[in-house]
Amino acid sequence: MFIESKRATSVANRVPRWRGFGVRSGEVWRLPAPPSGDAEPLLLVTDTAVVTLTPWDAPGGSRARVAAGTPQGALDFLSKVTSVSWAA
């Protein structure tokens, strides 16, 4: 998981102009898969922060219905996040 300020100039170009999937803390988009062939990362945008989560970073658990390391597991994790903020 990588968290950046939403105000960073390098972030502005990565946030899609169309509406993402609404979750408690903001909106989520799927990013293009990296050249390595790994799963597509997800981008969560809140009022002040931008979070990039690769599916293999999503935590699993003994009660998880979807395995960590899958795009659905990553989306399930981001859907449960209630707040991500950047203060600097």
Could you explain the architecture of this structure?
The model has no long low-confidence stretch (mean pLDDT 81). The chain has a five-stranded antiparallel sheet with strand order 1-5-4-3-2, with helices on one face. The longest helix has 10 residues, at 71-80. Strand 4 (42-45) and strand 5 (49-53) form a beta hairpin. The protein starts with a strand and ends in an 8-residue tail after the last helix. The protein is globular, with a radius of gyration of 13 Å. The protein has one domain. It is of the alpha+beta class and 88 residues long. It is 16% helix and 24% strand.
Quick summary:
The protein contains two helices and five strands; from the N terminus they run βαββββα.
Outline the secondary-structure elements.
Elements (H helix, E strand, L loop, with lengths): L1 E4 L3 H4 L8 E3 L2 E5 L11 E4 L3 E5 L17 H10 L8
Antiparallel strand pairs: 1-5, 2-3, 3-4, 4-5
What attributes does this structure have?
88 residues; alpha+beta; globular; five-stranded antiparallel sheet; 5 strands; single chain; 2 helices
Total count of domains: 1
Overall structural class, as computed from helix and strand content, comes to alpha+beta
This entry's quaternary arrangement is: single chain
How many individual β-strands? 5
Instruction: Write down the overall mean pLDDT.
Output: 81
Number of helices: 2
Note the overall shape: globular
Spans of at least 5 consecutive residues whose pLDDT stays below 50 are: none
Order of helices and strands: EHEEEEH
Distance between the termini: 19 Å
- Percent helix among the residues? 10-25%
Indicate the radius of gyration in whole angstroms. Answer: 13 Å
The portion of residues forming beta strands comes to 15-25%
- Major sheet strand order: 1-5-4-3-2
Task: Give the biggest sheet.
Answer: 5 strands, antiparallel
